[in-house]
Request: fold
Amino acid sequence: MILVTGGAGFIGSNFVLNWLRAGLEPVVNLDKLTYAGNLENLHALKDNKNHIFLRGDIADSELISSLLTKHNIRAVVNFAAESHVDRSIHGPSEFIQTNIIGTFNLLECSRKYWSTLSEQAKQNFRFLHVSTDEVFGSLNKEDPAFTENNRYEPNSPYSASKAASDHLVRAWLHTYGLPVLTTNCSNNYGPYHFPEKLIPLVIHNALKGKSLPIYGDGQQIRDWLYVTDHCEAIRCVLDKGRIGETYNIGGCNEKTNLEVVHTICNLLDAQKPRADGHSYKEQITFVADRPGHDKRYAMDASKIQTELGWRPAETFESGMAKTVAWYLDNSQWTENVTSGAYLEWVNKQYIHAV
Ligand code: NAD
Ligand code: TYD
Reply:
């Protein structure tokens, strides 16, 4: 069995669905079900005996230790995290708690469990930590993309907490020999993406007739990766990655935020035109910039491509078309997640814009 943490969130739930669809080992899925975790994402698995869901915290050492032993876990894939930069600016403490203390606890419990295994099982065990391109800081337009050897220069409380967790993972290999792997990926998009992040937020607001808030001048650049491509990359690293290595994962799709929002508007104009016949672009509103806003992220994914043979299957155009179609077909999902705590957040963050 494998233990997936954060498997009710955006990427984690896509990963679990993708893993079980591929007929791989059973999964124990541990998730705290914060505002970002949603069991509806896992609805298709409700009768699947190869999926065990447990609500719990990665910082709970008793729980983690008992899970590892009880289910004879052969790999841990750690997605659990606080993941939203804007929230980390408003309140960093949860980020320190889950991303740093939580990862530390997961490593310690894994190390203790791993030390009790037979030599063969020890060799087969893997701890895969899912991290982000944001640990490398911000690039200028003309800079080469981040490689695995770039210096860590995190700029937000979120990226600093992820950077700290990456360092802990590295130390648990070098000090204790725990067989770890780290992946650093670029911005994901696709189904089950919580509508606090740019792409689902813009789709949601457009359809609700609300403004489409663009921070600053909208010229910041992100490298967009379709979530299923990311899930495949993680499977590939887990299967074939060299112990102790880090792998950059990117979509080769560098776009400015304004380009992303225009793409969404064009797709919606074609698939779900506004009643008045005008373009959704009319709803674009430029709002105050994010403090410390990173200008550009770009990933050089040549290591995973040449060493492990992974490359993304989706282009930005095909991935965005699938994403917009998914949100149009699953409006109930968005309705269900955009109540309660979500509304409180939107009112705080977009006081003047939405
Ligand atoms: P998400 O916020 O959608 O999901 C995170 C999940 O973790 C939620 O289900 C939440 O309930 C759970 N969780 C939070 N704290 C927990 C705790 N203490 N114990 C157990 N579960 C807890 O995030 P995501 O976008 O799916 O990101 C998954 C991972 O990938 C994160 O580690 C993130 O840093 C990383 N990442 C994400 C992106 C992206 O574009 N979304 C890009 C690079 C890296
Ligand atoms: P986001 O989806 O929050 O991901 P990240 O900050 O991890 O890259 O934001 C993507 C980009 O979109 C980022 O440059 C901030 C910008 N953005 C907006 O312009 N408006 C918004 O309402 C949001 C949520 C993000």
Q: What stands out?
A: The radius of gyration is 20 Å. The longest strand covers residues 126-132. The chain has a mean pLDDT of 96. Residues 85, 187, 197-198, 201, 213-215, 220, 222, 257, 290 surround thymidine-5'-diphosphate (ligand 2) (CB under 6 Å).
